[in-house]
Amino acid sequence: MKPKKNDPLSSRNILDRIGISSDAQFDLLEADDPLESPMESLARALSERYEAMQVCHTFKVGDIVTWKPGLSNRRYPKNGAPAVVMEVLETSVLDRERDSGSPYFREPLDVVLGVFAEDEGMPSMFLTWHFDSRRFQPWQAEEGL
């Protein structure tokens, strides 16, 4: 069945258009489901990031943490890299960025993390910075390491 001009394309329609038979070997594709539009994909990603920010962890000094997926907003620690909790602030410090167009404007910084920062040609340095703890989760070692 040929889709109408304004109908969303399904994976089956795309396979037919590029000349690949939609046999049983492609049953893993949800062939009759329309593909998500870029705006739908963006909306879904926004909802996922919102939900992740709502999940709060209670950290204590010495805990090892890492960025939650999709929520890193600083250069360090690198995505997936561990950081150590150096201090948990009772009262958040607000980022002093004066421009309301900045992503850091009034960001509540409530945890101090220690990280190794590496730059090309420089050895690792242990540095501490203030962060918004809502962006972090407990770090877990990858299996098999």
What can you see in these coordinates?
- This protein is of the alpha+beta class.
- Helices cover 17% and strands 25% of the residues.
- It is built from two helices and five strands, in the order H-H-E-E-E-E-E.
- The chain has helices spanning 11-17, 38-54, and strands at residues 64-67, 83-94, 108-117, 125-131, 136-138.
- The protein has a five-stranded antiparallel sheet with strand order 4-3-2-1-5, with no helix packed on it.
- It is elongated.
- The protein starts with 10 loop residues before the first helix and ends in a 7-residue tail after the last strand.
- The relative contact order is 0.15.
- The mean pLDDT is 81.
Compact summary:
The protein is an alpha+beta fold. It has two helices and five strands; from the N terminus they run ααβββββ. The chain is elongated and about 55 Å long.
What does the main sheet amount to?
5 strands, antiparallel
Low-confidence stretches: none
Shape descriptor reads elongated
Give, in order, the helices and strands: HHEEEEE
Strand order of the largest sheet: 4-3-2-1-5
Helical coverage, percent range = 10-25%
User: Count of DSSP helices?
Assistant: 2
Rg (CA only):
22 Å
Beta-strand proportion: 15-25%
Task: Give the class from helix and strand content and strand pairing.
Answer: alpha+beta
DSSP E strands, number? 5
Overall pLDDT, averaged? 81
Alpha-carbon distance between the two ends: 51 Å
